């Protein structure tokens, strides 16, 4: 199951290349999660999940605290959660999740990012059925066998466990993200290379070199939009 660790690592590396933009996106997501529930990760699962993911991107504590304090302060700024689906070169599939305070602006920007780079937006449901929502947790220094033993001892189920070089990637049900992390923490693991709920393509496709270059340009254009939080796709990046 799932995408190779190298692809996840590549995606993280591209995000890390512009940390200020990454931090701003996390600040918005943390604020929204904290405002829609209790501003306490112990009682707010959505907030806990985004904070766990923020840690793997090394989001500074000041960014996190500022977003939570803004929610606690009763800010009336509101954001709509939107999902767009579309197609890239050679029939590649893309899902775009956004948080916006201006729906018309975001829809226009996303449509333009698709259209100017050989893609086009689809209707709701045209792509999502080819993806599965799943929790992904990555750790270093463990084998797949050791990871399985840790999870079994904690009575936590995994859908799949992949081993690549010195990394182990665990795929689990979205509701088990925190339980998987807690199992590893109980076994002495303190850092995670990835810890998030993602949309994973059921099947990946390979693109010829010219189409791949166009596709990557399209993904960059989408991820550069301030309102876009996350972009998922079904292309094998190598």
From TrEMBL:
Its main location: cytoplasm. One of its GO terms (biological process) is regulation of DNA-templated transcription. It is found in: Cytoplasm. Residues 80-235 form the TACO1/YebC-like second and third domain. One of its GO terms (molecular function) is DNA binding. GO terms for cellular component: cytosol. The keyword Nucleotide-binding does not apply. The keyword Transcription applies. Coiled coil: none annotated. Keywords: Cytoplasm, DNA-binding, Transcription, Transcription regulation. Residues 3-74 form the TACO1/YebC-like N-terminal domain. Belongs to the TACO1 family. YeeN subfamily. This is Probable transcriptional regulatory protein NK662_15665.
């Amino acid at each position: 199951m799932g995408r190779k660790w190298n692809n996840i690592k590549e995606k993280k590396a591209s995000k890390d290349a512009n940390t200020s933009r990454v931090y701003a996106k996390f600040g918005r997501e943390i604020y929204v999660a904290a405002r829609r529930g209790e501003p306490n990760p112990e009682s707010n699962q959505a907030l806990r999940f985004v904070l766990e993911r923020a840690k793997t991107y090394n989001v500074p504590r000041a960014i996190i605290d500022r977003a939570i304090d803004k929610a606690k302060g009763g800010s009336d700024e509101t954001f709509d959660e939107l999902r767009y689906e579309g197609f890239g070169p050679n029939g590649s599939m893309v899902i775009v999740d956004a948080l916006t305070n201006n729906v018309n602006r975001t829809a226009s920007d996303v449509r333009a990012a698709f259209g100017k780079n050989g893609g086009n937006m689809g209707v709701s449901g045209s792509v999502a059925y080819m993806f599965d929502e799943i929790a992904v947790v990555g750790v270093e220094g463990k084998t797949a066998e050791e990871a399985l033993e840790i999870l079994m001892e904690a009575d936590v189920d995994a859908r799949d466990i992949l081993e690549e070089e010195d990394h182990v990637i665990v795929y689990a049900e979205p509701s088990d993200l925190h339980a998987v992390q807690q199992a590893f923490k109980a076994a002495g693991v303190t850092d995670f290379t990835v810890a998030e709920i993602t949309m994973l393509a059921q099947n990946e496709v390979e693109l010829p070199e010219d189409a791949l270059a166009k596709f990557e340009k399209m993904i960059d254009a989408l991820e550069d939009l301030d309102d876009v939080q996350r972009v998922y796709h079904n292309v094998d990046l190598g």
